[in-house]
Amino acid sequence: MPEAVGVIETLGFPSILATADAMVKAAQVTIVWCDRAESGRFVVAVRGQVAEVKRAQAAGIAAGEATYGGEVITHYIVPNPPENVVSILPLEYTEAVERFR
């Protein structure tokens, strides 16, 4: 099955927490990366089957926007990313996240 990567960037930690929580509860995806971007912005990336990532991203966007003071800055889905993208960017399934797959 082809996998996808979904990324959401929000303003503020509470909104990224709500976003990540909603994403993993709404669909069968794994968080592969979450970090601070800049100036109070945070980014979360998930991987899973394309349909699951689309469903997770929709739930994450809604949760991020619904958080008090939260704002979704941007979001994007990459269906079936090439291996060189996955190996260079922090999107691989690591040992730390493998048990959540």
Question: What count of domains describes the coordinates?
Answer: 1
Low-confidence stretches: none
Q: How would you characterize the largest beta sheet?
A: 4 strands, antiparallel
First-residue to last-residue Cα separation: 14 Å
Query: What would the principal axes of the Cα set say about the shape?
Result: globular
Which fold does the CATH topology refer to?
Alpha-Beta Plaits
Characterization of this structure:
The structure is a single chain. With 101 residues, this protein is α+β, with helices and mostly antiparallel strands. It has a single domain (3-78), classed as BMC (bacterial microcompartment) domain (Alpha-Beta Plaits). It is 41% helix and 34% strand. It contains 4 helices and 4 strands, in the order βαββαβαα. It has helices at 13-26, 50-66, 83-88, 95-98; strands at residues 3-11, 30-36, 41-49, 71-79. A 4-stranded antiparallel β-sheet has the order 2-3-1-4, covered by helices on one side. β2 (30-36) and β3 form a beta hairpin. The longest helix has 17 residues, at 50-66. It is globular, with a radius of gyration of 13 Å.
Topology at a glance:
Layout: E1 3-11, H1 13-26, E2 30-36, E3 41-49, H2 50-66, E4 71-79, H3 83-88, H4 95-98
Helix pairs in contact: 1-2
In short:
The protein is an alpha+beta fold and 101 residues long. The chain has one domain: Alpha-Beta Plaits, CATH 3.30.70.
Main features:
101 residues, alpha+beta, Alpha-Beta Plaits, four-stranded antiparallel β-sheet, 4 strands, 34% strand, globular
